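FAQ: What does the model actually see?

It sees only this:
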Amino acid sequence: MKPSKDFVNLSKDFWANIRSISQKSGYTESKTRRIKIPTAAEIKTVFTDLDLTCRHLIDDNEKLTPQGIKVIDYFKYRADILNNYVEPRLMDADKAKKLFKDLKKQYKPKCPLPMNKQKGSKKAPAYFTGMINILIEAHSKGHECDYNPRALTTITRNGRPLRTLARWVDGAFPQSVNPVAIWEIKEYYYTTTFGSRVADGVYESLLDGMELEELHEHEGIKVLHYLMVDSHYTWWVSGKSYLCRLIDILHMGYVDEILFGHEVVEKLPEIVNEWAKLLSKK
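And it is asked to produce this:
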């Protein structure tokens, strides 16, 4: 999914308010466990508890200010998109396995299809990564792709390094030097808790996005940045707060799109076609 046009290019302080309210009021409803929409009264309580003013959001007459209205509208949007769009698209291992096998049969890929890092009975193909690789190969119009760059992403100018990112990423098109697009894949089908490794994955994508933002702002070079995540249990049952954070960083501009579960089949072919067009213009 792409960010909603209603909530892009907003100020950094807008997102400071979203984060402060979210962490203090909570991300989910206690009874339904669905994504929460804080009320104006709850927001006022949050700022009182934090010993901060909320007059920029709620005036002395208890009316929402224009920024307060925008904040509430964003919380409504975030809850709706997660509850009604994202959650149904997240898959478990059985669904992912079936879809992976169907795509493998349909496309007969030659691209890498890596195994997961599990042991024993849980050792199997990395279903989500395999799907992504298959779809990229099928729709890249013959262009090369680095499905597992074991090198830092580097942007050059006049044959010299201009920026080198801090981390390895999971994929680069067409390669890790001057890519059109890079992506991270977070599939956690056999994870039983939302552990620090999963949380770190969210912040790693944020770091990549900040470096790419700086590159674009100061050098005028745009590298498309994608995050693809799956596992209904890990993200929805255990990690709803981190799903909220993902929607936040999407709208903050740190990733261009996030594909959730089955959405890779729905959206990735079109995305890869666009990569190929961009590459042909270089």
